[in-house]
Amino acid sequence: MPVLVFDLDDTLYPELSYVHSGFRAVAAYLSPLLRQPPEMLAAGMVAEEAAHGRGQVFDDVLRQHGRWSKTLVAACLRTYRQHLPTLALYPDAERCLKRFGAWPLYLVTDGHKEVQARKVAAMSVPTHVRHAYLTNRYGRHRAKPNPHVFELICRREGVLPTQVIYVGDNPRKDFVGIKPLGFRTVRILRGNYAHLEADAAHEAHRRIHTLDELTEEMVAELLAS
Ligand SMILES: [Mg+2]
């Protein structure tokens, strides 16, 4: 039986919703310290992220209130990474996981392993997939584009790479490592990379705008190609 594998961030849920969930946790932590309402602090962080990205958000909020220190920035970062996020799957992701509910489904995601594990748990991903592979658990060098965990999936299911489809959003790393081995790939055009033009090696076999486009017909066609 063919195997469907999904990326997590910006494929199954909007990654920015995790960032905002983390900001709310940090705002709650800083609120008594800065004597400001948490909603106001969180709104400031959301605005700062939208304007300049997430790199300096905690430095900025502390500086604005005259409380910047290395220790407090580190405490914010820890609060952010350790918070239990409130997240929801994209509605089309929810429908897709249900539609292919009888198939062998897997998840493959890079990133901080505890953070990714909390995201996976928050969205009940384990109820949908046979296993969620957090590449970080196998060493940093096993992050995408390294094909290691994809090979583990083949072994576990007793299938060839040509029977496995990976759905991801990031043409920089999601497809380039596994395509030469025969894995089939589908790129979902959303998130930060939606508008990135990729060369032939980095581009997926198919491009879709929502997971509703991933049908049994499309899968059959992809596997036959
Ligand atoms: Mg992604």
TrEMBL record:
UniProt entry keywords in alphabetical sequence: Hydrolase, Magnesium, Metal-binding
Membrane spanning residue stretches: none
MF GO annotations: hydrolase activity
Cited NCBIfam families: HAD-SF-IA-v1
The name this protein goes by in its record: HAD family hydrolase
Domain of life: Bacteria
Keyword Magnesium belongs to the record: yes
InterPro entries: HAD-like_hydrolase, HAD-like_sf, HAD-SF_hydro_IA, HAD_sf
